[in-house]
């Protein structure tokens, strides 16, 4: 598919084209649908493992150039969680993947939207729902002189405006964005729109109008720390979610994503444990400013500390090492030296209790895997993450081992052979959504901390 018609359409569009009180909004958060072509459980795990490693590669090594945004994205498929948001006057509703690892909110846009290699995840590229700017009276292209343009392009130069002696009449738009990621890209223009909820609306919300994408059948709702993210633009003091368990079968299950401008913690039920967000590194890689860094003190397997080197657990001033929390990654990623310590400790403690499933390890890309056929009771060491401030995330078995039709179990942590050597670049550990299942997760933006507690999500 040629980019040319879509770029011509992009430049054609260029030529055409508050919240005052505290509130709480609750949205439905659903797992993205499974691909019908990957019905085999082992193939599904292999796809998720590959997608998680690819996502990690681009969170750690985000590409940048003069026209690229600072936002690392991930290959679409299943393994994420989606929400519905409404934009425009009158409102148009679209589906978005909820992503705490990036900041821009964007949707497929205009009747000419094209998506290459998007016939997957039970979606046909010809049936993708798109936002139609000309049907909304509140749609405006963000101008080059608009301060919000610098959210995406800090060094933007409005040359046409500078040559125009009457700056008030300058109608040059903010440059088109091109977001590149593991297996594709998306490109479009920034719009100023109204984000509409049942009882509230946010005017002049900056959203991406994407005209061409690769492997992106739905938009992305960025919940990162950048100024263009949904939480920052809405002035939220807190947002929280509780992820229902992955089924990867398209079942219509969901849980709540709560957007809170009042900052009142939900203290019902078990006590919430907190760990502070780390100050984002002053790195030359701007994408690192989007991430939610936390300090992981240690990792234990069955109560035994795996003794991961300090340089992997704590990020340096350039953003190398440390841990981030990312709803867009499925399986938790660990640098090779940390992963090998964790895997070796599981192998040591499990010993000969269960036999290794070597064939499944080779097919799925996950390890260790064990045969459990005929076993009535499974007894495995507990995996626990210990964070700064005393917060401990003791994972239930289903969050770090996946069952394949009650015959085999595989550890759902991943690494990448291409990144085994050192600590950088970027975060050494990426806490994915599979390990966040059935935890209440609270992003306290006012007090700069992450809260969590074990809870059945439904």
Nutshell version of this structure?
It comes from Perilla frutescens var. hirtella. With 458 residues, the chain is of the alpha+beta class. Helices cover 16% and strands 29% of the residues.
Structural classification: alpha+beta
Percent helix, as a range, is 10-25%
Overall 3D shape: globular
**Amount of beta strand:** 25-35%
End-to-end C-alpha gap: 42 Å
DSSP strand tally: 27
Helix tally equals 8
Please describe the topology of this protein.
Elements: H1 4-16, E1 24-31, H2 41-60, E2 81-87, E3 92-99, E4 106-108, E5 114-116, E6 140-141, H3 149-152, H4 159-163, E7 177-181, E8 184-196, E9 201-214, E10 219-222, H5 230-234, E11 238-242, E12 255-260, E13 273-276, E14 293-294, E15 296-301, E16 304-305, H6 310-313, E17 323-325, E18 332-334, H7 336-350, H8 358-364, E19 369-371, E20 383-387, E21 392-394, E22 401-404, E23 408-411, E24 413-414, E25 429-431, E26 439-444, E27 449-454
Parallel strand pairs: 3-10, 4-9, 5-9, 17-25, 18-24
Antiparallel strand pairs: 1-2, 1-12, 2-3, 2-8, 6-8, 7-8, 8-9, 11-12, 11-26, 13-27, 14-17, 15-16, 15-20, 18-25, 19-23, 20-21, 22-23, 26-27
In words, what does this structure look like?
- The protein has 458 residues and is an alpha+beta fold.
- It contains eight helices and 27 strands.
- It has a 15-stranded mixed beta sheet that branches. The chain has a five-stranded mixed beta sheet with strand order 14-17-25-18-24. Strands 16-15-20-21 form a four-stranded antiparallel beta sheet, covered by helices on one side.
- The protein is globular.
- The chain starts with a helix and ends with a strand.
- One of its GO terms (molecular function) is aspartic-type endopeptidase activity.
- Keywords: Aspartyl protease, Glycoprotein, Hydrolase, Protease, Signal.
- Pfam families: TAXi_C, TAXi_N.
- Belongs to the peptidase A1 family.
- Residues 81-453 form the Peptidase A1 domain.
